[in-house]
Amino acid sequence: MRLILIRHAEPNYEIDSLTERGFIEAQALSKRISRLDVTAFYCSPLGRAQRTAEPILKAMGRSAETLDWLREFSPKVKKPWKEKEGCAWDWLPGVWCERDNFYERDGWYREQEFLDASVKEAYDEVTEGLDRLLARHGYERHGGYYKAVKPNRDTIVLFCHFGVMAVMLSHLFGVSPMTLWHGTCALPSSVTILDTEERREGIAYFRMNAFGDTSHLYANGIEPSFAARFCETYDSDERHD
User: Fold this and answer.
1) Mean pLDDT for each consecutive 10-residue tract of the chain (241 residues)?
2) How far apart are CA 237 and CA 233, in angstroms?
3) Which residues, listed in sequence order, are joined to residue 7 by a DSSP beta bridge?
4) 10 Å Cβ neighbour count for 106?
5) Which residue among 13, 17, 67, 113 is least crowded, i.e. fewest CB within 10 A of its CB?
6) Is the pTM for the entire model greater than 0.90?
7) Helix H segments across the chain?
8) How far apart are CA 50 and CA 23, in angstroms?
9) Alpha carbon 1 to chain centroid distance?
């Protein structure tokens, strides 16, 4: 089975939709995805993901099932250097890298800031939702891998958000989401692809063969958005926090 995770196009967070540029990105993405033989589409309930999916669904004459757990990962965490609470990721490297627990598969959520914000409970909601979805398509979670109950070559597409995408990948790979939240960057409208490998009958594992791909933008003469990134050097006037 092929699992395609799509981050929404460039967002306008104030109105939970897309920017003018974002709508252009979504159209370019549609040219790519609408050519595929897709078994099922699933979408976050948030407007920016819905608006990204619309051109594809319209072009293919299809619809997407909205899944609440695909919304952006939303626990509000109090970080040591900030007065206001914010998302679970975007920690300063000089803070989170000093804590060994954050690297641990079963330790990252034990840090006090995450305990206070019930982050593990929110994480479990996402991972349990993902496992239910995969079971519907023939793959049942068993420890760190999946039983191929009804192995297939279907393609399913999920329109979602970077934070929740990192949660899903951490579950599939058995790693802390902190390393994915801070060590990867899925730009707006980017495409991440995972395929099952059933090297022994009935035992499947998801292997990522593309992460954050934006080739559909370059194919249409569009530079990827800077959104989701931070400054490359400190002396830049680009985003620091």
Assistant:
1) 98 97 98 98 98 98 98 96 94 96 97 98 98 98 98 98 98 98 97 98 98 97 91 89 81
2) 9
3) 160
4) 10
5) 13
6) yes
7) 20-33, 47-60, 93-96, 112-116, 119-136, 162-173, 177-183, 215-219
8) 11
9) 18
Report which residue type is found at 180: L
Query: Can you tell me the distance from the alpha carbon of 4 to that of 74, in angstroms, rounded to the nearest whole number?
Result: 22
**Tokens in use for 149?**
């109950």
Calpha distance 118→187 (Å, rounded): 27
Return the closest-CA partner of residue 163 out of 68, 75, 54. Answer: 75
- pLDDT recorded at residue 108: 98
**CA triplet 63, 155, 22: central angle to 5 degrees?**
55
The token pair that represents 16 in the structure block? 């939970």
Share of the chain above pLDDT 70, in %: 100
128-138 residue pLDDT tens: 999 999 999 99
pLDDT of residue 50: 98
* CA 82 to mean position of chain CA atoms: 25
CB 9 within 8 A of CB 17: no
User: Cα(94)–Cα(97) distance, rounded to whole angstroms?
Assistant: 6
Cα separation of 76 and 122, whole Å?
11
